[in-house]
Amino acid sequence: MKPSILLTNDDGVSSVGLWAAYEALAPIADITVVAPATQQSAVGRSISIFEPLRATKILMNDIPAWSVAGKPTDAVIIGLYALKLNPTIVVSGINIGENLSYESIMTSGTVGAALEASNQGTKSIAFSLQVEDQGDKFDDPRYHGQNFAAAKSVVRDVVSRVLANGFCMHADVINVNIPSVVKGGYEVTRLARKLFSTGVEKRFDPRGRPYFWINGPLLDDAEDGTDVHAIRRGNISITPITLDCTAYAAVEESQKIFLE
Predict the structure, then answer these.
(1) For residues 251, 253, 259 and 260, what is the CA-based torsion angle, rounded to 10 degrees?
(2) Above 90 in pLDDT, residue 156?
(3) CA angle 100, 101, 107 (to 5 degrees)
(4) Residue 56 reports pLDDT greater than 80
């Protein structure tokens, strides 16, 4: 029997990135698509606990899929508990736009879905594809002009390796970032601290009242060994991530402050 995969994302069930991942994985696994009905980028690991969730079975590209009117985490939970799927692994992506650094993975719906899956007991892999123009992240994901050919090869190879060798024992999520033009091979990385130089732009509406727009350019690079640096070199970044956010190096100092 083929292994089974729950496939989700944060760009929505109609995203070309999601269906590129489906095409890459269908020959090697039984795939069930359970994804948000609409664009849910940057919602992180937020969860809908104050409103009902609707999951609708639809056809996309003549393939059955589940469209969930909620967040990426909601889609994972619906898949695992309402649809009673028992996947070998969960795959999230291919996201349109890179998810690099502490900064991005804390807000990414793509990584958020993967973290939720692992928290619920199923290890997961998140895939993201770099875009050259950051404005491309805001285009309609149904008709995106990004070339997914190289990304599909990476998705199939990474998932095949994990299925054959097992998941990394001390990792909960494998965060994979693919450069828009692949120039090298795999690089196992750590998270950079930041991806953007964060700023806020003050603007005025037609009635003269101020509002604010969070913005900021991408950082040119980061230190060697980080995911940001790997992508800037054209390598495929493989970052093992853990759910445990405990700062173990700070435990002894914290004991001195609070217990002595």
Answers:
(1) 150
(2) yes
(3) 80
(4) yes
